[in-house]
Amino acid sequence: MRNMVQNIRTFAAAATLAFGMAGLASGATVDVSRVNGKWTGATAEGAGSNVTGQNTNRISWGQARSRNGQSGYGFVGSAVGVFETGKEFQIGTFTHYNRPITTGTSITGANLGLAVSIVLGSLNQAIIASFNFVHNETPNQGTNGVCADGGRPGVGRNANGCADRVTILDNSASQVPFELDGVLYVLEITGFITNGQAFSEFWTRENAENSAILLARFREVGRTTSSGGGGGGGGGTPSPVPLPGAAWLILSALAAMVMVGRKRQAA
């Protein structure tokens, strides 16, 4: 009996491992072949913002106060490869060309449209998504000698004047999902990577080109439903998730061991 219990424990441990490995193996993957991005619009702070470059990968604005020209945003897509759903990957590089401009001629936000080419089986499909970047053009001298990030002018990232801030709104609710193996996903941008660290916002040095890697992921938002029978209502119940074959084999072995133990006790 003691040997039987030990064997059951061994098989139970194997079952747990098999379930874990099956879960890893069954994770969906998305094959990305290309990423293109265009700035589709911006919200001007004033009449003199002079926004240019819309529908290109670099948008500019502001009345320049130096030979370096206007401030602007740039984007270059870089994600090519196979990525697991739910996990972050690098989708491209965002750059803020932070230049000295006249007060009141900045923007308060800009829209980045992405066209992501993915391969689903033998078919190529384009995912279209739009993301809102919020821009905070901070006073270069700060307020009462303190910059918007809590630092002081002339120190660190505020060395050339107080750093500006860029954030990304969560637009996942407005994205059109795509289907993969009966599961619906949307593309979302989750943050920035600078100097090897991930951030939800990007503080950019004045009078400099500030670049950060954009992180993204394919997030599950639902499951398709069967067409269902009967009259009426459209839809049905979500497709069940099948138990991995390896798990069924291990559970069957456990059941068989229990039955053998009972027969031995009865003999």
Features:
267 residues, alpha+beta, seven-stranded antiparallel sheet, 42% strand
Q: Topology, please?
A:
Elements: H1 2-25, E1 29-44, E2 58-61, E3 71-77, E4 81-84, E5 89-98, E6 107-120, E7 123-136, E8 164-168, E9 178-180, E10 183-194, E11 197-199, E12 201-204, E13 208-223, H2 245-266
Antiparallel strand pairs: 1-4, 1-6, 2-3, 3-5, 5-13, 6-7, 7-8, 8-12, 9-10, 10-11, 10-13
Helix pairs in contact: 1-2
Describe this structure in words.
The chain is an alpha+beta fold. 17% of the residues lie in helices and 42% in strands. α1 runs antiparallel to α2. It has helices spanning 2-25, 245-266, and strands at residues 29-44, 58-61, 71-77, 81-84, 89-98, 107-120, 123-136, 164-168, 178-180, 183-194, 197-199, 201-204, 208-223. The protein is elongated and about 55 Å long. The chain has two helices and 13 strands. A hairpin with a 2-residue loop joins β9 and β10. The strands form two sheets. Strands 2, 3, 5, 9, 10, 11 and 13 form a seven-stranded antiparallel sheet that branches.
